[in-house]
Amino acid sequence: MMSTFLPRALRLGLFALSTTLLLPACSLDSKPADTERLPFLGEREVKPHADGSPADTVYATIPDFRLTDQDRQVITNQTFAGKVYVTDFFFATCPSICPKMQSELLRVYTKFKDDPRVLFLSHTIDPAHDSIPVLRDYAQRLGIQDASRWHFATASHDSIFSLARAYMTAAQVDKGVPGGFAHSGAFALIDPQRRIRGVYDGMNPLEVQRLLDDLPVLLKEVEADQKAAK
Amino acid sequence: MSWGRRLGVLAGAGLAVGLGASGCFTERQNESAKIYATHCANCHGTQGEGLQRLIPPLAGSDYLVKNRLALACLIRKGVQGPLTVNGVEFNQVMPPADSHLTDSQITNLLNFIQTSWGNQGEVFTIREVSEQLQGCGASDGE
């Protein structure tokens, strides 16, 4: 079941991505700023009610996870409760795209590092090499002293790769590419309900700018929802 | 020395007019700019700026001056272990170039680095580069 669901989710995700890429101006200009909302990416399920009342739409969410970060802290979905977070997949010895990608993510981090509503999470896709001391050294060399703001995390190989699929940031082992992993260099933006609200090509500064523009929009939405819930 | 500087100025002018210029120097410069963009820029940055304490800079790097004789082999074979650039210690892995670069491509690439982003290093001849590569058993004579 997983195996048929995931590729489909990915395709849908890419479709959603391409529509947002084509129509950014439309969604920005056509609505007043206070109702502006980011799209929901991934598979969605419409649940009709037996009594005929309007159906509920259930959006794809990030599954439960349990990772360990560079400070040896266990991190789970709970770590990000009530927060917005940006996530990606990398590895310390990546010969191709990672340095560029991580330098772009660092750019985003730098803008939001004093905003407690936004957290960062980088997963290693090479857990065999990237032990906790390696992750710690990497984070510090990147200039990240506070692990609670930007987690560099590891888990078993299988959990990492299935998470990468859930985040729609395709990562897989590929002996044919330099470094032994094919990976897309995507960043995903996740809301407090674990839903994917954006996927961005971390290698493309324009896409990263779109993430920088989307973050305040999502934060506003979260704030409005939290007020409404009170 | 002054030749190197002139090459740098020419290259700067070539970039400024946006790849429209022709001529031997600028074309060679364009080709090496492309090699740099394909093989090196993801790590060292489009402006040779490096990345924090993970990847050392090439712009203004004192390593280029102090280790001039080892640069061709470093590019062909990669480098790892602790290494100091402008007083900052780095300790990561630089892999060998991801596809084969000929001796002359390495020469052009090195000269691109020596004359870009404000660098005014002494340029290399292909002969010098081939000799360096022979020293580490890695010259291909091309």
UniProtKB/TrEMBL annotation, chain B:
Pfam families: Cytochrom_C (PF00034). GO terms for molecular function: electron transfer activity; heme binding; metal ion binding. InterPro entries: Cyt_c-like_dom, Cyt_c-like_dom_sf, Cytochrome_c-type_DH. Keywords: Heme, Iron, Metal-binding. Residues 27-117 form the Cytochrome c domain. It comes from the Bacteria. This is Cytochrome c. It comes from Hymenobacter persicinus.
